[in-house]
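Here's what a typical entry looks like (Fimbrial assembly protein):
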Amino acid sequence: MAVMPKLPLVDLLPTLAQRRQRDFRRQWRVWAGLALAGVSLTLVPIVWDLHLRRGAKTQLLTLREARQRLDAKVVSFDVAQRALARMRAHRQAALALVARRQDVAGHLLDVIRACADGVRLADVKLDGHQWHVDGYATTQSRVRELQKRLRSLPWVKKVSEVESSLIPEGVAHQLVGANPPSSLPAIRRFALRVEDRPAAASALTADEMWDQEEPLDDQ
C-alpha cells in the first residue's frame, strides 16, 4: 500500500505584517485624500480671485477703449465745432463785406452824382468811415455847391474842406487836354473830407434831388 505524502497546512489568513501594510496603505490613501481636499479648498479662493481680477482687468481695458473712443469723438466734435464756428465767422464777415461793398458803391455813386457842372473828381478814397474826395473845380462856388449837396445826403455826417487853392496855368493846360481854349478859366484844386454815418443807408434817389440844377454864382 502506497503512502501519500503529507501536505503542509495552507494558511490563507493574512499575516500581521500584511495587515499592517494594508492598514498603512489605507491610512495613506485617507491622508492623501484629506491633503488633496485641503489643497483644493485652498486653491479655490485663489483661482476665484484670479478669475475676478482677470474679469476686472478685462472690464477696465474695455472701459479704457470705450473712453478713448469717446475722447476721439469729443475731439472730432470739438474740431467740427471750431470749423463750424470759423465757417460762421467767415460767413458773417462775407455778409458784412458784401453789405459794406453795397453801401460803398451806393455812397460812391452819390458822390459822383453830387458833382455839378464845372467839377471834376480826381480821386475818391475811403478810410474807415471817412471819404477823401479830391478834384478840380472852375470856381469856389462850385466847391461850396458840392459840399452843400454832400451834406444833404442822409448817410453823410460831416463835410470838411481840407484844401481849396488855385493851380498853376501849366497844370491847368495839362488837365484841359491837347487843345486848350484860348481863354482858360482859373481852376481850383479842392480836397474834402466826408464823414459818413455807419448805420445809415445809402441815398439812391439823388437824381431826383438834382434833376433841376440851381443857377450858380461863377464869381
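The chain has four helices and four strands.

More examples are in the samples folder.
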